[in-house]
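Project outcomes to date are best conveyed with an example. Our students and postdoctoral researchers have been running inverse folding experiments weekly, and each run begins with a structure described purely in tokens. The record below, which covers 217 residues, was selected by the lab manager from last quarter's runs and is presented without edits.
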């Protein structure tokens, strides 16, 4: 392959997980930043991704990838020396795939509604109810994951960071935020804190998803 990866993303969004993975891999990449919802959903973005969503990743080959879990798995598998995913014949592979898919399908997908409840409800009171129920569902998903997963070391699959850990750390910063995540899945708290403290990601976190006072609440 030749050329750089191109990430279409936004500060504080799901693209940060992709940016983190590329940073850990050490592959060349550049960012096309979308600073507002209008830029994300506008016609220019639609020409990149007809779903009008980020993240989107253009591979060095020129092929477009969307869907954050698929992107993360592909990046990790394409760079096996990074150790960011278990090999296809590893006994950890089924667990890895299960929880990558769970995080994407059961949690991430709900934010399309939670971020803009007007997509399904017109009246403010109904929007408030929808947000409350969506947040409760996300908390329930974290609870289920916490009950099913026992970290195998500092991270979910062992003592080495994987894209699953990165994905979890990013998604757990959104509503109901870390306070809700810690309450729902207390046994996973140290895993996401270990990702927060990964020295190779310090600059990325500071720029793209900063730890401001009270951010965990």
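After processing, the design step wrote out the following sequence:
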């Amino acid at each position: 392959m030749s050329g750089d990866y191109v990430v279409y993303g936004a500060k504080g969004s799901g693209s940060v997980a992709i940016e983190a993975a590329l940073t850990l891999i050490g592959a060349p990449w550049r960012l096309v930043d979308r600073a507002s919802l209008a830029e994300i959903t506008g016609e220019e973005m639609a020409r990149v991704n007809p779903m009008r969503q980020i993240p989107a990743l253009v591979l060095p080959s020129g092929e477009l990838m969307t869907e954050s879990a698929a992107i993360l798995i592909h990046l990790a598998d394409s760079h096996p020396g990074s150790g960011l995913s278990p090999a296809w014949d590893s006994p950890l592979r089924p667990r890895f795939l299960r929880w990558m898919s769970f995080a994407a399908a059961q949690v991430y997908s709900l934010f399309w509604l939670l971020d803009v409840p007007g997509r399904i409800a017109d009246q403010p009171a109904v929007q408030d109810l929808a947000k409350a129920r969506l947040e409760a569902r996300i908390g329930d998903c974290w609870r289920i994951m916490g009950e099913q997963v026992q970290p195998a070391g500092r991270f979910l699959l062992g003592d080495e960071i994987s894209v699953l850990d990165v994905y979890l750390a990013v998604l757990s910063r959104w509503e109901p935020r870390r306070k809700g995540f810690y309450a729902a899945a207390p046994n996973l708290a140290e895993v996401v804190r270990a990702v927060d403290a990964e020295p190779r990601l310090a600059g990325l976190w500071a720029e793209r998803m900063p730890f401001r006072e009270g951010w965990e609440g």
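The domain at 93-199 is CATH 1.20.1050.10 (Glutathione S-transferase Yfyf (Class Pi); Chain A, domain 2). The chain has a mean pLDDT of 95. The training component of this project remains on track.
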